[in-house]
Amino acid sequence: MSGAGDREPVFPTRQSLGLMKAKLKGAETGHNLLKRKSEALTNPNTVPEITRRIDEAKRKMGRVMQIASLSLAEVTYAVGGNIGYQIQESAKSARFRVRAKQENVSGVLLPAFEAYQTEGNNDFAMTGLGKGGQQVQRCRETYARAVEALVELASLQTAFVILDEVIKVVNRRVNAIEHVIIPRTENTIKYINSELDELDREEFYRLKKVANKKQRDTAAADAEMKKKNAEREANGEKHKAPEVDDSTPADILQAEGDEDIIF
Amino acid sequence: MSAQTDFRDRQFLAVIGDEDSVTGLLLAGIGHVTPPPDNQKNFLVVDNKTDNAAIEAAFDKFSTERKDIAIILINQHVADRIRHRIDTYTAAFPTVLEIPSKDHPYDPEKDSVLRRIRRLFGE
User: Fold this and answer.
1) Which of A83, A147, A170 to mutate to test the interface with B (most CBs of B within 10 A)?
2) pLDDT over 90 at A220, yes or no
3) Structural domains in chain A?
4) CATH code of B42's domain
5) What is the C-alpha separation between A240 and A227, in angstroms, rounded?
6) Which of B70, B38, B40 is nearest to B57 (CA)?
7) Which of A16, A136, A245, B79 could bond to A10 as cystine, CB 3.0-4.6 Å?
8) How far is residue A46 from each of residues A41, A59, A119, B123, measured CA to CA in Å?
9) Angle at the Cα of B40 (from B39 to B44), degrees rounded to 5?
10) How many C-beta atoms surround the C-beta of residue A1 within 10 A?
11) A84, A144, A164 member nearest B23 (Cβ)
12) Phi, psi of A101 (to 5 degrees)
């Protein structure tokens, strides 16, 4: 009975019963709160919204990248050769960078990237100097727009990944509390209660035994007394008080020289 | 979460892709080479001769070693070559973004993030 199920290793005392009850209450409150958090995170205004936007942004990215590669083809045509090598060699410092800022969704901090361009460094000043400069310029602008779209998409995606992680963690906690901690605490409470009942019964039984014994002793003493009286009557000593002199009870205040108590 | 503390110094984009994609993105100005001692580029040009190990090494370098990269852009057909690495990559930073290339149109079915989304909704 007491060993059934998983329970915490506690001594069955009233104090730990109180502790367990407090713990159960705490677990239930926590479970409620986490459940609400999980619901808030998966509600129709956050995650599906983000996923819809990711989907949209991915499709948009497809179109933008197509336009961008078309303009690159234009450049190749205008410059009359592949400029890839030249560009890879002249890339030195990023003009296009991202900055992260935070956004708060139901207590979860989601980072959002923001693209910005640093001023004044242009690694490709010489690109297309001979011919095709205009196309190169246009291509750069197109790609810059594409990168902006990509950054936006990336921040959505990051938000989604983090949110997904948080939702998983919260759900795991909700499940752990629901299926492990609460049953276990309940089991422990049950165990403590049963042990305490057992102790109560033991105590009751013991008291009953003690009472029984006392009763038996008095009954025996009574019987003895009766037997003595009967014997005395049989001896013919009528109505004489049994060996007790009727003088006043000894005055305990008058010291009669008690025997010294020697341990 | 530790992932949320270290994104402040991440400010570059990295790109792994075919020559045209890399060229275009570099033109937009995302190219960055770290100062002389190590001279690390934040881009890798992949062609038919590049083997998968090199792609994987570059991906590892951008995703785990370097702490200044916020977004990794990778061509989808290149991502396909190291698909197992992309699919098992779950960290939030840096973000891996699959982009279409000139010769390979974008296929949403293959995208690791879109797949994750679908899994989340149990479709």
Assistant:
1) A147
2) yes
3) 28-171 (1.10.287.3240)
4) 3.40.50.10580
5) 16
6) B40
7) A16
8) 7, 20, 36, 18
9) 130
10) 8
11) A84
12) -130, 165
Give the percent of chain A with pLDDT over 70: 79
DSSP for A112-127?
EEEEEE-SS--TTTTT
Task: Please report, as a single letter, which amino acid is at residue A79.
Answer: V
What is the per-residue pLDDT across A139-165, written as a single tens digit (0 to 9) for each?
878 888 888 888 888 888 777 777 778
- The domain total for chain B is 1
Residue type, A180: V
> What is the DSSP secondary structure assignment for residue B2, as one 8-state letter?
G
CB B13 within 8 A of CB A147: yes
Q: Any idea what the Cα angle at residue A62 is, between residues A61 and A64, rounded to 5°? A: 60
The tokens describing A261, both together, are 């108590």
Quote the pTM value: 0.67
Q: Find out whether B105 and A69 touch, Cβ atoms under 8 Å.
A: no
Residues 6+ apart with CB under 8 A from A28: A182
> b/e string for A76-111 if b means 16 or more Cβ within 10 A?
bebbeeebbebbbebbeebbbbbebeeeebbebebb
Q: For residue B94, say if its preceding peptide bond is cis, omega within 30 degrees of 0.
A: yes
Domain that residue B109 falls in: 3-120
Distance (Å, rounded) from C-alpha A136 to C-alpha A144?
12
Q: Is A96 on the interface with B (CB under 8 A)?
A: yes
Is A190's Cβ below 8 Å from some Cβ in B? no
